[in-house]
Design goal:
The protein has 360 residues and is an alpha+beta fold. It is 36% helix and 21% strand. The longest helix has 26 residues. It is globular.
């Protein structure tokens, strides 16, 4: 276990939004102070209108959710363009089942206060959090250390080939067969279901409905301190090739060598081309995150296959049906990718603990 005050840093989140060539605080919907006057007025006017006359339309999509709680101005200037970038789908194509935790809904007083000054408190589920001093890799290091201390074994370099549900048997690509009583999987749900032998056609059809977005991002090393203090920043503009940029070294100084700093830049495009790098650097300079290109030590592109599950209108019938089918065979698919949801690291840890309690 960690010594909280020694190895884990308690961080009060500093998050920003870059739009209309200015920085404002996050969340956008309660921080219009600093925006161009016309933009701020459009956002506030639309918001006050929906408070006075709430939409009667039933919330069926994420787009409905946005207009219902925030109005036309906030939708136009942040909610719609930002979410199109991150999800790779228009909010009208998505359901709103995931929104309550991840989309802050400020009170009227907070929206009005945020139009007059930038001095009020942060909103959202992660307004403060703990972070390992040497970076998030410490999390898996500590888990491994704990497992090995208990005399248990972790095997690497082995891949799932097939699962014989009726026989409760797993076959690995090496040919090894493993019998199980309960099987816990963190393999992306869509891949895992395809590995099942003898799956009914109905379950295969549900699996075909699962949709996700991949993510390309850039790890950038700088040979100087970062010019901005934020931990991460949201970028809704369609003209910028990334939707969010953050700094590992702003989480903890130990995440970069002395006098240096580090960035992650999450790209909105579905395909990566090397030509996006100079464009991204140009926008980082415009945002005054990087002072000059010569400050960049290196840029490393990275890829996450199943970064974001898309909560489209098939989600609420397909995903529960798949989990129900798996549970019949004592199979539990958990974690962000295994459960096939939009969740945080702490959610993944909680899922693991809950399943262990269930088995015990």
């Amino acid at each position: 276990s960690w010594k909280i005050h020694d190895e884990l840093l308690k961080i009060d989140r500093i998050s920003r939004v870059w739009s209309h060539n200015v920085y404002t605080k996050y969340p956008f919907q309660s921080n219009t102070f600093g925006l161009p006057i016309a933009v701020a007025e459009e956002c506030l006017d639309g918001y006050l209108k929906i408070l006075k006359n709430p939409p009667k339309k039933k919330i069926r999509s994420f787009e409905d959710y946005i207009y219902h709680y925030f109005g036309h101005g906030f939708a136009r200037h942040f909610m719609i363009p930002y979410n199109k970038k991150i999800w790779g789908a228009h909010p009208r194509e998505m359901s709103a089942v995931w929104c309550d935790k991840f989309v802050p809904i400020p009170k009227k007083e907070e929206v009005l206060a945020g139009s007059k000054s930038a001095g009020h408190s942060e909103l959202g589920y992660n307004a403060s959090f703990y972070y390992p001093r040497r970076g998030i890799g410490e999390l898996t290091e500590k888990l491994e250390e704990n497992i090995l201390q208990r005399g248990l074994k972790i095997e690497f370099g082995k891949k799932l080939l097939r699962v014989e549900c009726s026989r409760k048997e797993v076959i690995l690509d090496s040919g090894e067969k493993i019998k199980y009583d309960t099987l816990i999987s963190t393999v992306p749900l869509k891949e895992f279901v395809w590995s099942l032998f003898g799956v009914p056609a109905k379950i295969k059809n549900y699996n075909k409905l699962l949709v996700s977005k991949s993510l390309f991002y850039l790890n950038i090393a700088l040979k100087c301190p970062l010019a901005q203090e934020f931990h991460w920043c949201y970028v809704p503009s369609p003209g910028v090739p990334f939707y969010r940029v953050g700094s590992y070294s702003n989480f903890s100084a130990d995440c970069a060598p002395s006098g240096c700093s580090s960035l992650y830049v999450e790209l909105s495009g579905r395909n990566f081309k090397q030509t996006v790098v100079p464009v991204a650097l140009k926008h980082l300079q415009k945002m005054k995150i990087i002072k000059k290109k010569s400050d960049v030590l290196f840029v490393k592109p990275k890829f996450i296959r199943y970064a974001y599950v898309i909560y489209d209108h098939n989600y609420t019938r397909a995903v529960p049906a798949l989990h129900k089918f798996l549970k019949k065979y004592e199979i539990f698919s958990i974690g962000r990718y295994g459960a096939w949801n939009y969740s945080s690291m702490e959610d993944g840890l909680i899922m693991g603990k809950e399943i262990c309690n269930h088995i015990n």
